[in-house]
Amino acid sequence: MNFIQTLAFSRWDIDPASDEPAHGFFMRLAELEGSVSMRTFANWNDLEVNRVATNELMETLERHPMPLEWFEPLRLNTPLRDGDGYVLRGHSLPYHHIRFAPRRWCPGCIHEAHHHRGWWEVESIRHCPIHCVELETRDEGGMLVPWTWLSFEYSRDGFYLGRELPRHDDGAPFARYLLGRFGWLEPTSAPLLDAISIPDVIDYCEFVGRFLENPPSRKHPSVGTHSADVGFEALRGDRGDLAEAVRGWYREHRNNHKARGVAAHFSWGYPKLNFLPESLRQTVRRAFHEAAAFETEGYDRRVTDQDFDVEFMPQREIARKLNIEPRAVELLARQIGVLQKTRERRTVVADAVDTIAEYKETLLTIQETSRRLGIHQDAIRHLVHAGYLTVFRGLNPGRRAGGRYSPEQVDDILGLIDGLPVTGSAAYGLTLHTYRTRNQLVPGEVAVKVLKGEIAICEKRDNVLGFKRLMVRTDAKRKRQSFTRSDDTMTMGEAQALLNMTYETTQILVKQGHLGVVDASPRQVLISRKAVEEFAAGHAKSSDFAHGMGVSGHAVSWTMKREGIEPVVKFVKGGKHVDTVFKRVDVMRVYGLEADPTVLEDARLDRFWEIIVPEAAKICPYLIFPPKLPPSGQRVWNSNRGLSAHFHFDPGLGEIHINLSARGERNKFWFDLKTEDYIGAIKGMFKVFDRMVKEATQRQNAKTREWWRKRKEG
Length: 714
Ligand SMILES: [Zn+2]
Known about the structure:
714 residues, four-stranded antiparallel beta sheet, three-stranded antiparallel beta sheet, 27 helices, TniQ domain-containing protein, TniQ
C-alpha cells in the first residue's frame, strides 16, 4: 500500500517565538515528533539534507494548517535566499553577511528560552546585545553543535547550552544598533548610519573599527571580535566625532611621523577606502584629512561636523582668480589663517578668496612700512630675517615689484616698542641713529637688537614714529670726541692755518700728494706735520707774495705765466676758493728778490703773537692760528665755516686790527702794539667771540628746527 505523506509534522502544539526563524522552529517541531537528528528527519521528508535550506523549510511549514499569524513573523525572522543574497526582516543582505556554520547561540538567551534567534546567523554580530557576551559555537566539552542536532537545550554530549546571565544595556553597541535597525530591539539613533543600508552600516563600522583598533601597518588586518563595536563608537555621533576618533589614533601612532600630505599618515586605511561605497569613502577620507590637518596645524579645538562642509581650493586656482602668483596666495592665506598646508592640493579655504583679495589691498609698501616703523628701508629685511615681518611677494606677476608688508605685523612691532622697558636717566640718551653710527652698526641690526631687548632704552619720545621714539641709555654724559693724536700730525684746519690757504686749496694739495701720506677716516683727516711744514717752507699763494711787493695777486700770476712758470695749484675761473700757489724760489728768481716777501719781520708782532696764541687756546680752543701772521693778514678759522676772526697787522701804525664774524654778527677790535696794555684786552676779546659763537650756534639750531618743522607740515 502506498501511503503518501503530505505533511512533515503531525502536531504543532508549541508556538513560534517572536524572534524565532523558520529553521529553528522547524527543528523544535521535528524534536517534538520524536526525531533525534535533523538528517534522518529531512531524509524521511525528502528535504535538503546537507545545508540549512531556509526557503524550503519555510515553505514546508507554510503547507501545514497552522495558525496563519505564525507565518509572517517566521518568514521575517528567517534569512531567506533572494537572488545573490538574503532577505532578513525586509533588509537585503549580501550572501557573505549571513553565515550558518558554525551554529551560534547566546548562552544567556538560550537559558531564558530554548529556541534559536533570527540574528544569530548575521555574521558581523559577534555579541549578544542583551547579555553582552560573545556568541558561542562550542559546548562545554569543546565540541561544535551541528545543525543536525535538534536540541536547543543540550548538546549531543549532554552539556547544557545555556547559562544564567544578567541582562545589560551598556555593551555590544554595534549589535544593539543593528538589532534596533532590524526591529528586534528598541531602535537607537546614529545620525551617520541611520540613512544608509544595513550592509553599508556593517562594512562602515568594520572598516573604521579595524582601522582604529590597529597600529599602522602596510597590510590591512582582519576583522577582530570588537572591530565593529570600535567602528560603531566612532560613527555613532556626527562627522566631527568621527574625525576626532581618527585624530586620537593619529596622536597615538603618528605624532612624530614625518610625512607630507595626508595619505602617508594612514597606512593601509587610505588606499583601502576604495572598498567602501562612494558616499562613505568621502566621509572617511575627509575625516582623515581633518584629523591630520588639525593635528599638524596645531589646532586646539575639536573638529566639528561643519568642518566637513568647508570647501578648499587649490592655490593655483585662487592665484588665477586674483591675478597673483600661487606663492603669494600661500603667504596671504597663511597670514589670515585660511591655509591648511597638510591637505593635498586643495589647501586654502574656498570662501576666503574675497577676504584674501581684501587683505592684499591692506598690505603696506616698503616706504610706508619704513615710515610707520620710523626706520631706514634697509632695516626692513633684517626684521624679515629675524621673523618680525613677512614679506609678501608675487602680488604683481610678471613684474618685478617690491614686496609688501602686513600692517598687523607692523603694529605688533610698534606694540613691542611700546612694551620695551625704560631704565636709567634720560639726560644722556642717544638717538638710535647716533648709537648705531658710533657702534658702526647698520639700522637693521640695531632694530633687531632693540626688539630683542639687547639695547637699553632710557626714553620714549612722543612726537616721532616707531624706532625713532627710542633713546638709547648711556651710563655717562656723552664724551666729546677726543682728538688724541701725536704731534706728528695735524688736521686740515691746522694745515689751512699754517699754509694760510683755503680748505679747497689744501684739499687739492692733499689729493695731489703734496702733503705726503694722509690718514683719512670718516671723522677727520690727519696730515703729516713735517710734510705740511716742508711744503709751507717752499711755497706760498700768489696774494701773499703780492702783498709784500705792493702789487696784486693777479699781477704775480700773470708775470709768472709770461715767464712760463706753472703754479703748483691754479685758480680756475668759476672754481671756488682756490688759491694760486707758487714755489718761493720761482717767484724770487722771476722778481729778482733777495728776501722772501711773504715773511713779515716785526718784533712787536712776534711778541703779540706769542701772547695771543696760548690765550686763545684757553678761551676759544676751536680757533686755529698760523705759526706766524703773514703781511696780508690771515683769517683764523673756527672749524665750522661762517665763524672767523681776521687778523691784520699794519706795520706803519704798529697796530693790529681784528674782525670777528659769527654768522652775521660782526665785532671789530684793534690793539696798539706799541704799548703793553693789550694783554687784558685780549682776554675780553676772546670772551666776546666765544659768546658770539655760542649765540650764533643757537640761532642756527633754531633755524634748522624750524626748517624741519615746515618741511614736515608742508
Ligand atoms: Zn543573549
